[in-house]
Amino acid sequence: MMSEKIGTVQEVLETYKKAVNERDSGRFLKMYASDVHIYDCWGSWECKGIDAWRDNVCGWFNDLKENGDVLKVSVEDIVIEENTNLAFVHCAITYAAYKEGSDEKLRQMTNRFTFGLKRVNGSWLITHEHSSLPINMEDGKGMFDLR
């Protein structure tokens, strides 16, 4: 099923960063369990299962490619709790967008993330993901630039 194993939870985060930067949907999706359940802030309440998640991810990466945008991803404030077969991670993930071949930053946002992972056949897979932004209570809009 999987050609390469992700042996540590930290490797999941590194794979996440590289796959987003390279706009590699195949590598990105290999980190997720087939029954993944995602709460995300991409305009829908939730995403159930790898097929639904694949549609979102491929759309995201294709939009980046069409626009010539590259995302540099950093992961901060990482807290990992794990036992033999289950892990829980919370962190802040910053996405900084650049035009391909340029060092000029176009935009940036930081989301709060929580991941639930399980070890399957020796590889860590994300089974649950929740990303969020705080909202401004005066206008109800997401606060993208707190960091």
How are the SSEs placed, and which strands pair?
Layout (H helix, E strand, L loop, with lengths): L8 H14 L2 H5 L2 E8 L7 E2 L1 H18 L1 E14 L3 E14 L5 E16 L2 E10 L15
Parallel strand pairs: 1-6
Antiparallel strand pairs: 1-2, 3-4, 4-5, 5-6
Protein name: SnoaL-like domain-containing protein
InterPro entries: NTF2-like_dom_sf, SnoaL-like
Pfam families: SnoaL_3 (PF13474)
Low-confidence stretches: none
Helix and strand succession? HHEEHEEEE
Total domains: 1
Q: What is the total tally of β strands?
A: 6
- Cα distance, first to last residue? 38 Å
> How many strands, what sense, and barrel or not for the largest sheet?
6 strands, mixed
As a whole number of angstroms, the C-alpha radius of gyration is: 15 Å
CATH class: Alpha Beta
Determine the number of helices (DSSP H or I, runs of at least 4 residues). 3
Q: What fraction strand?
A: 35-45%
- The CATH topology turns out to be Nuclear Transport Factor 2, Chain: A
Tell me the CATH architecture. Answer: Roll
Pfam families: SnoaL_3 (PF13474)
Protein name: SnoaL-like domain-containing protein
InterPro entries: NTF2-like_dom_sf (IPR032710), SnoaL-like (IPR037401)
Organism: [Bacillus] enclensis
